[in-house]
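Researcher: Please translate sequence to structure tokens.
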Amino acid sequence: MINSVYIHIPFCEKICHYCDFTKFFYQEQMADDYLIALAKEMDYYFKDDDSKKAMRTIFVGGGTPTALNVTQLKTLLKLIERHFAIDLVKEYTFEANPGDLNEDKIKLLKAYGVNRISMGVQVFDNQLLEELGRLHRVKDVDHNIDMLHKHDLNNVSIDLMYGLPGQTVDGFRASIAKALSYDLPHYSSYCLQIEPKTIFYQRYQKGKLNKPPEEIEAEMFQLLIQEMERHGKHQYEISNFAEMGAESQHNLTYWDNQHYYGFGAGAHGYLPGQRIVNLRPFPAYVKEAKNTGRPVLHVERIGKKEQIEEELFLGLRKRSGVSRTTFSSKYGVALERLYDQQIQTLIAKGWLEEFQDGIRMTEQGQLFGNDVFQQFLLDDEIESIIK
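Model: Translation complete:
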């Protein structure tokens, strides 16, 4: 059953120095063309079914969806409403950049059923914001949070980053304190990753990026966990913290290895037995979507082996970990039959721990997540066991 959908809006007023997502500078005509193409793609998937789909979650991300002007934003919201039963959606999220939101856009989002805003703040330091290539400043966050509360859009999450060039532990502590001063129900925080084809990557290659050493990044991460827990925001995934009941239901779709639609340039969809990756370049996406309705770059077959591997990679990101009962129910084989040696090795390292019905990463293990995940790749000869 597919009960979640991701929709990608790739436009930004400015390209951040660290970002490797599919994104383009906002131009009004480009955005108009993109929305027509997006409508063609969504129509293709639902062309034989006039009834509206009942979705548990809808997430509109980017880029910056709120970079669209009011007319375009309304066109997008009406397109989504045409295909999905909005009144049945439990969590309907729009990403937004501070400063992009104004009262007209907030009223429009609210009127069309959007009930959650995810805001890309990144850091509460105007100098660092400029060095990241961000357009907003701290005062814009204050203003947008006030406006959202004014219109009863209170389910707000903000993103923070750490491990930034020139950032100190005390500087990150100040950002955490400012973020927590809003007392929002949800926070996300990510360590800066240097990705190819970004401005930061070019500087890194030239030795001109003053990134903190790994031990300082680890100290920042531990500080983050401590401060969030101290303020009643429990860590439910490596990078995500929430009040009880305010966890991101859409992101849990990913971490629970469930299926979802993905629409837009560069979007990924995960349908039964296949992962669909869309074309990224703007001209290619728009042309193929308008001509065929299916702007697909490639389709990857997801067999049982790949599903099991992803169950571990994604499930171990959650603090609730991987349940033995759920695993054996989904895949017809006991977790230990496939992974007993790996589990025992990781427990001995202090990176994994057992609980009553499963396994989860320790706080130390979260610092070595990729090393942990690699242990759960399966050999091809395992196919005979999992068939």
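Researcher: Any highlights?
Model: The chain has 16 helices and 17 strands.
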